[in-house]
# Entry
Amino acid sequence: MKSYEVNFDGLVGPTHNYGGLSYGNVASQSNSQQSSNPKEAALQGLAKMKALMEMGFQQGVLAPQERPDVAALRRLGFSGTDAQVIERAAKEAMPLLVASCSASSMWVANAATVSPSADTADGRVHFTAANLNCKYHRSIEHPTTSRVLGAMFADQQHFAHHAALPAVAQFGDEGAANHTRFCREYGEAGVEFFVFGRSAFDTRYPAPQKYPARQTLEASQAVARLHGLRDEGVVYAQQNPNVIDQGVFHNDVIAVGNGEVLFYHEDAFLETEHMLAELQGKLANVGGKFQSICVPRSAVSVDDAVRSYLFNSQLLSRPDGSMLLIVPQECQANERVWAYLQSLTSSGGLIREVKVFDLKQSMQNGGGPACLRLRVALNETELAAVNPGVIMTAPLYGSLTAWVEKHYRDRLSESDLADPQLLLECRTALDELTQILKLGAVYPFQIN
# Structure
């Protein structure tokens, strides 16, 4: 039976704005308060989806959240009609309104952690929505995320869904941004690689001093238990706290893996040699041959990696066994990073080609190609059980681009977030989107 890695990309929402909400994310903070272009952002993301589909990769789409989140503002004490809630929040607590308008759900690498059926005890694909507890504007996402994923992967014979972990610091969970799976073939048993920034209870693990470590060891262990993973099929590794303090807020900003290959920066992890040996040994036990590509700091500094998002790229397997790297334009604009990539692809190694995409709107807010996609390994039977409305096709691409052109603004500033009309625009757009994607009622305004 054939198996596939399907990339489900986040569709950028109508309230895409530069709120500067993510402390520890250099791009998010440095572009704070600039005007954004939601229409351009959504079209850039859709163009990447279409391109990958046309290259022969399985591609899906994951719907955005309802924003502004009026219900979240009500829980914080704002009352009245929806318009009054927005107006009062804008007047009394603008930072809370900005947070409630965040379109950060576009970065669906943080939506959930996914374990394929070949790895799990019950032979189903398991999803655990991430609690994203470190940042308020992201912590309000998981209820809708769970409903959307449930509508996409509804067949309980093939798919299992778990609620987000407890919303406390000890179980901070950032989803697949800190999770990678290695395997010989997508449909075969593999090794799931969980990267954490700190331990909540074990003081032996060092912690960063400047920026928060968002993923805890305990959260990663809990997800592995929920998914029924075997101990011999799991490796835990600690992210280097010094690189977290340099703006590497997730592992996918400093490393990316696919198939049997890990592409990583020299400074990405602690106890790197031990980690590599464990990955090699455990993958060998299931018939795989682990391979790693280390980018030396002498070629690419951590600062270069953060500014270019070299590692926040998509590493894709091609039929001939070689790999393709999808990178943002910022990699091409960085002289040292581009020189390294040119030497990498000309060396005859595993990564043979680099393709560059314009994702400037997302990049300015701190998310590159890897942030925009949630990877789900599926066999043919499971793929057939996925809601077909969310699988990218040429007609769906046409429908979604027309939908964006119809509903999205081409400029959004902080002051625009106080306009109650924006909420009505968002709800009208999302109501239509659920019909296009055949999701049913997944948003609070559709349910309540």
Residues 3-67+102-447 form a domain with the L-arginine/glycine Amidinotransferase; Chain A fold (CATH 3.75.10.20). The two ends are 42 Å apart (CA to CA).
